[in-house]
Amino acid sequence: MLNLSYDAVIIGAGAAGSMCAIAAAKRGRKVMLIDHSKKFGEKIRISGGGKCNFTNTHCGPDNFISSNPRFCISALNQYTKRDFIDLIESQNIPYHEKKLGQLFCDRSAKDILVLLKDLASKYKVDISLAEKIIDVKKVESGFKITTTDKKITSQALVIASGGLSIPKIGATKFGYAIAQSFNHRIIKPRPGLVPLTFENNLLDHCKHLSGLSLCAEVTFEKTSFREGLLFTHRGLSGPVILQISSYWQEAKSLNIDLLPEYNIEKFLREKKSTQNSQNIQTILSDILPKRLVKEICSETNISGSLANISNTELQTLGDRINHWQVTPTGTEGYRTAEVTVGGVNTRELSSKTMESNLQPGLYFVGEVLDVTGHLGGHNFQWAWSSGWVAGQNI
Ligand SMILES: Cc1cc2nc3c(=O)[nH]c(=O)nc-3n(C[C@H](O)[C@H](O)[C@H](O)COP(=O)(O)OP(=O)(O)OC[C@H]3O[C@@H](n4cnc5c(N)ncnc54)[C@H](O)[C@@H]3O)c2cc1C
């Protein structure tokens, strides 16, 4: 059994933990970064379809979900998206904006992994992978962390063990259990940025439209997103569904506007008064994909020329296109979720340092916290910002 002593031990070698370790070691702190996984930063490697959407040029507090919405502001201001972009540029990593401010690596997410590994090595961070943590205790000098082959004492302990998404690459409840053992409260975790599941009637409808995509506005209660919606054999998918999934609550319905730039009922009434000999499918096909129009007209049983279609039927079509009510049956769960919504309650932490208000020397960073970003690089920015901030204070 090895006996070791550090200024700080960081548990979780993902985005937040590695940023924290690098920032602290750069300040001259003696740091150990531990992960039970054999691989460093596995989630970074698989992120953004292998190209890591590492930040977003529009990233700000409004891009985060939390029961304490102002908590993220200080960290995002202390280590900004520009700071991370500067880091990427300083290493000549080529990147591009895909859309909506989302920045991706040109080549591969491995560029980010290499960057983090090189910096960890430059500042002499000790990294211990495939290391199982057996016990964590508060002692007078700080914390005692026992692993299968080490007893480590450390002044500071940083929990960067992430959320529950994708258990097959190492996600565990570890961070929540440690938080609770120090009397921290947990905001109930649930899968976010996750495909929703649908009942059979809707699946049949979607199967006919499989492969079709359009820009739709999806609303849950007071939250709306306008982005790509994709019909697939498994139901509705695409960025707009992932975004709203982080807000959706079981048994409640979503409102989908398939053509947000148009008020369909008004548009059709106007057409009826000027071109009433036109066929409804022809008119709608000018502004919506033909396959979708055919499916909606057959489902609502409305066809023929506008002259023969009643105003009530025009309203039915308007509702079906602008106010399609859909009730998901559930989500695909943590197996495919990109993030976990909920986590360690931030009301018991300092937003300026990420330190626990209940246990001095204990810090939480990254996704383990009840701070969840929208799709588009915000979750990594939170990992970089919160990790860096803790790294300045341990
Ligand atoms: C498929 C996918 C694609 C994504 N793409 C993007 C994207 O392009 N852009 C974006 O912003 N976000 C993306 N995300 C979300 C983003 O990856 C996470 O929000 C981010 O990685 C969280 O960083 P973290 O360091 O807090 O946690 P993680 O990266 O999850 O790291 C936590 C680490 O802790 C370790 N750990 C867990 N339990 C223990 C334990 N008991 N003992 C020791 N170690 C432990 C884990 O092995 C892991 O290495 C994606 C997520 C997924 C799943």
Q: Concise description?
A:
The chain has 394 residues and is an alpha+beta fold.
Which CATH first-tier class of the largest domain would you pick?
A: Alpha Beta
> Based on DSSP secondary structure assignment, what is the total number of beta strands?
21
Query: How many whole angstroms does the radius of gyration measure?
Result: 25 Å
Which percent range fits the helix content? 25-40%
Architecture of the largest domain in CATH? 3-Layer(bba) Sandwich
- Largest sheet composition: 7 strands, mixed
Distance, first to last CA = 26 Å
CATH superfamily of the largest domain: FAD/NAD(P)-binding domain
The total count of helices amounts to: 13
In the CATH hierarchy, the third-tier topology of the largest domain is known as FAD/NAD(P)-binding domain
What features would you highlight for this structure?
394 residues, five-stranded antiparallel beta sheet, binds flavin-adenine dinucleotide, single chain, seven-stranded mixed beta sheet, Elongation Factor Tu (Ef-tu), domain 3, FAD/NAD(P)-binding domain, elongated, 2 domains, alpha+beta
